[in-house]
Design a protein that fits this description.
mainly alpha; 80% helix; 14-3-3 domain-containing protein; 2 domains
Length: 164
């Protein structure tokens, strides 16, 4: 019974991810026109939905889904790094989710730690330039998540991460 219920939930999740991916690809991204922030955000969303699919996919689908998600995250990362300051919540969020993808889906803790640490350090270096209070709160929360993940990725609390 448990296995049957797990399969039902996995199918529902798969279908929901497929529906959301279609909306992001066919509606949201084309309507973003040339807004790099929006397009980067949508690319990250695509990567996220594919990452959820990886968790429930059959073994023979995982590698292709990993490649697709990685491509989406790298597109988002490139756009964010080209058009957004390091402390921008969209850019920090992209790097946070990309590092989680590397850790969970690709089982590459060293790479995940490197991505998270670089994003954290770059955002921290420019953090004082952020004067919009709402963006500052969002960036701070995301940076705290990066900080927590770095400790997790490093397999313990002995991380040399500066507190914000």
């Amino acid at each position: 019974i448990c296995e049957q219920y797990r399969d039902e939930i996995a199918n529902e999740l798969w279908n929901l991810c497929q529906e959301l991916l279609t909306i992001v690809k066919d509606v949201l991204t084309p309507n973003a026109r040339n807004d790099a922030e929006q397009i980067a955000f949508y690319e990250r969303m695509k990567g996220d939905f594919i990452r959820y699919e990886i968790e429930i996919a059959s073994t023979n689908l995982r590698e292709s889904l990993q490649n697709e998600a990685n491509h989406c995250y790298l597109n988002a990362k490139e756009l964010a790094e080209s058009h957004l300051p390091a402390y921008h919540p969209v850019r920090v969020g992209i790097m946070l989710n990309y590092s989680v993808f590397c850790f969970n889906s690709k089982s590459k803790a060293d790479n995940a730690l490197k991505i998270a640490k670089q994003a954290y350090e770059e955002a921290l270096a420019d953090y004082d330039q952020l004067h919009n209070e709402e963006m500052r709160r969002d960036a701070h929360a995301l940076m705290k998540s990066l900080q927590n993940n770095m400790k997790h990725f490093a397999k313990g609390p002995g991380s040399d991460v500066e507190e914000i």
